[in-house]
Amino acid sequence: MQFGHFFAPMLLEEIDYPFDSKEHIYELKFDGVRATIHVGPNLFKMYGRRGTNLIPFYPELKEIQKAITKDVIFDGEIVLFQEGVPSFSKLQERSHTKNKAKIEYFKENYPVCFVAFDCLYLDGIDLTIKSLLERKKVLNQFLDTDYFVKVSFVEKEGKKLFRQVKKNNLEGIIAKKKNSTYEIGVRTNSWIKIKNLKKEYFFIGGYIEKNENAVISLLLGEYKNNNFYFVGKVTMGKKQSVYQKLKNEKPIKKSPFCNSIEKDCTYLNPTLQCEVWYLERTRDGKLRQPIFKK
Q1: What is the DSSP string of 165-230?
Q2: How far apart are CA 223 and CA 253, in angstroms?
Q3: Using one digit for the tens of pLDDT, what is the confidence trace for 56-70?
């Protein structure tokens, strides 16, 4: 790791349900854009998970530099809050905008905040070999501002925190081992995410299959006012029992959906159902981050 140069952040494993543990701390999972910030009196760089320069998209975060007197690297999430709650849809608008006038408009009307959960480097010292709790102590030296906020955490009670997350319809929680070092570019079970997923059954209106692949994409839909609406796709392994049922169905020529026509797919009469977990609905009713369950 070198100050001012990109490196891939540490990644998380995922499980379905929360747990309690004396060896872990628990943080809120923020619905944002993962970023590492390299900042000092003479330098400010902000990298996305894959090395994208994020400064042009969120220029207001350069304000963070005003409060920093030493070279430091933070890991965290860029979050856009609306009425105290993260708004991923509004953040997406910003993330996909390259127009300078629009970026300036968003900067003034929908500013973002950097939510820091780790400190990896300070004044020439590599902190990645330190334990998480040691790094947290270093992070706590930095004061919160309008554009920089440190994430808080609780100990032991992951289930209780997750209940609060569900009650307030937030994204989820993160469980982190207290003694975990920072593993650059590694997906590890030292950090675990548990998402607050919604669970529903949807009808299958077709599928997309490539023979060489071990998975297929299901075309999902739901009935509203006697119309059948497309809500998204979900990937399913061909070893699932639903797969053979699909193959036994007689294909139809016309799309059963009133709002979508897919290319290179097999349409079916929507009689079969499957259970899908998903994070939330987009403004047009599509499923975000759907996961096939059964």
Answers
A1: HHHTT--EEEEEETT----TT-EEEEEEEEE--EEEEEEEEEEEE-TTSSEEEEEEEEEETTEEEE
A2: 20
A3: 999 999 999 999 999
pTM, 2 dp: 0.83
Longest dimension (CA), the chain: 68
The CA R_g of the chain, rounded to the nearest whole Å, is 22
Architecture of domain 198-292: Beta Barrel (2.40)
Positions of CATH 2.40.50.140 in the chain: 198-292
Name residue, tokens 């469980």. 175
Residues pairing with 125 in the sheet = 122
Rounding to the nearest 10 degrees, give the CA dihedral for residues 165, 168, 171, 174. Answer: -20
Query: Can you tell me the distance from the alpha carbon of 28 to that of 24, in angstroms, rounded to the nearest whole number?
Result: 13
Residues 74-84 have pLDDT tens digits of: 999 999 998 88
- Provide CATH code, domain 11-195: 3.30.470.30
pLDDT for 180-230, tens place per residue? 999 999 999 999 999 998 899 999 999 998 877 788 899 999 999 889 999
What are the residue ranges of CATH 3.30.470.30 in the chain?
11-195
> In this structure, are residues 61 and 34 in contact, taking their beta carbons and an 8 Å threshold?
no
SS3 annotation, 41-73: CCEEEEEECCCCECCCCCHHHHHHHHHCCCCEE
Asked whether 74 and 118 are in contact (CB, 8 A), the reply is yes
Amino acid at 10: M
- Look over the chain and give the mean of its residue pLDDT values, rounded to a whole number: 92
Which pLDDT tens digit goes with each residue over 119-167? 999 999 999 999 999 999 999 999 999 999 999 999 999 999 999 999 9
Cβ neighbors of 91 (< 8 A, separation 6 or more) are 31, 32, 33, 78, 79, 80, 112
Beta bridge partners of residue 107, listed in sequence order: none
